[in-house]
Amino acid sequence: MLAGLDLRIEPGEKVLLAGASGSGKSTLLRAIAGLLQTTDVGELSGEVSVDGRHPQERAGTVGLLLQDPSAAVVADRVGRDVAFGLENTRTPPDLMPGLVAGALRAAGFPYDERRSTRTLSGGETQRLALAGALALRPQVLLLDEPTSMLDADNAARVRRSVLAACEQQGTTLVVVEHQIGPWVEHLDRCVVLDRSGAVIADGRPGEVLARLGESLAAEGIWVPDLPAPRPLSVDPVLVTPTLHVPVGEVLLAAERVGVTYGSPFGGSAGEPRNVALDDVSCVLHEGESVVLGGGSGAGKSTLLAALAGLQAPDRGAVHIHPRLAGRKGRVLHRLTSPELAARVAWVPQLPEHGLVTHTVLDELLVSARALGQPAAAAERRARALLEHLGLAALAGSSVHHLSGGEQRRLVVAAALVHGPAGLLLDEPTVGQDRNTWAAVTGLCLAARNAGAAVGVATHDAVATHALVSPGGRTLTLERGRLT
Amino acid sequence: MSRPSYGPLSLLAASLLPALGAPAIHSTRHGLVCVGVLLLVSLVVVRDWSSTVRRLGLVALAALSLGLSTWLYGGRDLDVAAGATLRVLYLVIPAAVLTPFIDPTRLGDHLAQRLHLPARPVVASTAALQRLEALGWQWQQIARARRARGVGADGGILHRARVTASMALSLMVSTMRMSGSMSLAMDARGFGAAHRRTFAEPAPWQRRDTAILLGGVAVAALPWLYLVVTA
Amino acid sequence: MSSSVESQPNRASGGRRTTVLASRPLLGYRTVDLVSAAMLGVAFGVVFWAWSLVYNAPAAALYAVFPPLTALLAGPWLLAGVVAGLLVRRPGAALLAEVVAAAVSALIGSQWGWTVLLSGALQGVGVEIALALFAWRRFGPFVAVLAGSLAAACEVVFYEWWQYVVDFSWAWKLAYLGAFVVSGAVVAGLGGLLLVRALAKTGAANAMPPGQEELERSAV
């Protein structure tokens, strides 16, 4: 992963670590934290020291924030969660309340210590994780893409909290992010790794980016001040719907849809039942793209799942065009699984959950097989799509061995390759690098131009712009209602 | 959140102890007496009746269906069937009444501090239980992805079993990835070396816990006492 | 050199597959061992819940044919312990996973409440006995089948005979035990082994001994 890397970071320095995916940035962060033994396997040589000592000699010397904020949650209430590190380092319990309150303040956490950790948004959970690290007075704080899953507002709040805490405590900061723009002005130094894990640039961020910005962008990094990438151009023949509705007619119609739910186990655990969607009506036309916007918890994903026939509404219904009715009629969630697959495709937020088979090529052929489509034609389309997406060499690989970006491109292609008339995607571009971003938006636009109705739930403003102009629409949800 | 006033260990013991008494129940009258006493005792403990009644309803349904099948296929003997129903009720009513008072985080605190179980496995377990809802949603996402791709779980039992197995593998993949990042986050906060650790909240054993525990012992003994007395 | 990842893990030879063992001491649990075992318990608690939604119709049909046959559908409930035992390869991992899975059932709202902890603990103990017989050095099909069978046997002999199928005649009780053991051996034992091997192939278990075995095999 990394070989013979030497790096010296001064106390209080704020460093941006950049490089292509696969250059070992995350491995380096785990090495600095002294945590390579936790989950990594392989040969390790060399040494890391913080202030002349092994980073784990005093627990919490190095704080770590990960991409998935919930990875750090260990307790049901905020106070207990922040106290976790203090408990591990055998802090006397009577000192804990003061230390916990101080850490929550330093992290800019908006609630008190009695709050349930289950009721927090992604951004709030990330600030809770920050408080958990700060409680141990870290000398170094390592950030492994902690804002990549957050919308712009929440990402900004987390960033402000991190920078303020580092300022206040003189903490050294090492940041890995795909979206480096918002960080650059706050950092002193930028270190760039190449694919072999060697340092190819090290200097002031402005200078390094001026020199290497273009090549970093080509590697997929969102370098500030560069224009958004152009959506990949995809041959529309590969993604043309096999079942047609007349040009411009309504493919999917949600009529006064209401959804309430509490727990994934059917609300039987006595939890309060929340309103996820309230009296929502909307339509998706043949050949148009619609972006569902709104803050986290507004009901975007639920509406998307209802439009995909995967969420049975408690009130109202989603109907499909009469020409595409199934054996049991037009009510979308009553269609059988193969009927649904032939009509409407859906891509979950995490690509890992969308993978249903083992090899890359199989993944693209599963639906075609389930629908009894001619095998040879399906495989031709699949291979052509893989070629477009730069995945042709991986056709025989295990889907689990792909990078996150490759998996993302694969699940979107797999949703389209059997020619559904509708395509619904949940946050398809969040946290993606420029190349995957271009591939995903390119696939969406190609499907739309070929006559599919495309619905995308997203808080990515750049993607929204690319998908709705020209000729698309935006719908905004707020607390389960369309505004 | 208001604190439950009993410790989780006594509640857990009182939920489990009836398992020692229930096997003694064989006749209708024996069962009626024991379950009757149990319901009277429950009147004292229960405060939130609406959810308790719902849980007792589930318990009654399960017990009745067991009784019905015992009657249908066990020689159509009403006394045996009623005995079976009442025995299961006796086993499960205490758990149904006490379950909502048992909070996993507090249970962990007490297991580690009061019973002195090794702290790291206990804390890892309570941390993992915080992920229950997240894994439930993941299961839903996995099921939805399969349905949307035309390979959902409609159909016969064998097909559904196969689909469930393949979904279980998908869930295990996400689970192991989550475990890896949780472990990193926990080790970064010193969990790796925390063989002995302190706890932010105490785990007191109160007089009322002793009372609940004795109640549990009494519930375990009651069916046997009945046998002795009526013999 | 201030730290080193174990590049030469413990091995046991014998059989065609090299067996990678957990690092010694056997009870020297890494955090990832503990968290994985507990998280697998939670994940299988979710799978058990899903299985319970499928279970009722076929169970009623089997009961109508011959009541002890319902035990043929019980195998999935023994998976958590077998999978965690074969994956983590340390004493206690199977027990931890089964108890956590049982706690999940209680929390989701099983009608049996926290009494399922007793079942979970007994099933976990069954798996531990099987792995202990081979001193945590063998994890092949034979051990997996034995683990599934013993989990089933412990559950039936120490619990179900006395709580659920009390009114069965002894002939029926033995038939019930037989059906439970068959299901445990096939579904939990072999099925669990297949799940662990499939998981290792995905790369998601690289921090665990079966994942390392897979890495070594694909490196050759």
UniProtKB/TrEMBL annotation, chain B:
Name of the featured protein: Energy-coupling factor transporter transmembrane protein EcfT
Q: Which InterPro entries match?
A: ABC/ECF_trnsptr_transmembrane (IPR003339)
Give compartment(s): Membrane
Q: Which Pfam families match?
A: CbiQ (PF02361)
- Residue ranges spanning the membrane: these are 31-49, 56-74, 80-102, 211-229
Topology relative to the lipid bilayer, per the entry, is: Multi-pass membrane protein
**Keywords, ordered alphabetically:** Membrane, Transmembrane, Transmembrane helix
Main localization of the protein? membrane
From TrEMBL, chain C:
Where in the sequence is the signal peptide annotated?
Answer: none
Question: Any transmembrane segments, and where?
Answer: 34-54, 60-88, 95-114, 120-136, 143-162, 174-196
**Organism of derivation:** Nocardioides jiangsuensis
- The identity of this protein, by name, is ECF transporter S component
Which InterPro entries does the UniProt record give?
Answer: ABC_thiamin-permease_prd
Task: Supply the source organism's classification.
Answer: Bacteria, Bacillati, Actinomycetota, Actinomycetes, Propionibacteriales
- The highest taxon in the source lineage is Bacteria
Protein keywords: Membrane, Transmembrane, Transmembrane helix
> According to its UniProt record, what is one Pfam family this protein matches?
ABC_cobalt
